Amino acid sequence: MLNEKKIRLMTRLSLFEEYEGKEEIKIDRYYKIDYIRYQILKSMLCVTLGYVLILLAVFVYQSEYILDNITSIAYKSVGVYILTGYLFLLLFYSFITGIVSCFRYERSRKKMKKYKKNLKTLKLLCEEESELK
What is the pTM of this model? Predict the structure, then answer.
């Protein structure tokens, strides 16, 4: 005979694994601090790449002016502005990424706790069914 409770539970678990829980299962592999560090590292890499691309675009756009005034540009102050802007963006995005990652990890843990509870229930149902046979 078919156990309806077991079938419903298996269906719910399967749907979670297939759609809603793909990201949660990936996040569950990490400790909280490792997940947050990994997300911040990815964010820092993206900020650095984006900043370099923006600087390159500005340089290309202003190349005529730069080449005309190559001897009169205050390179030290320009470098300080570029470095200050980069550090500000890096810290800002790292802070935001840390907060978002922390909330995302906590939300994922709650979902995974429910998922693991359902897995234990399924295991108990399977054990009960095997004992009856």
Answer: 0.83
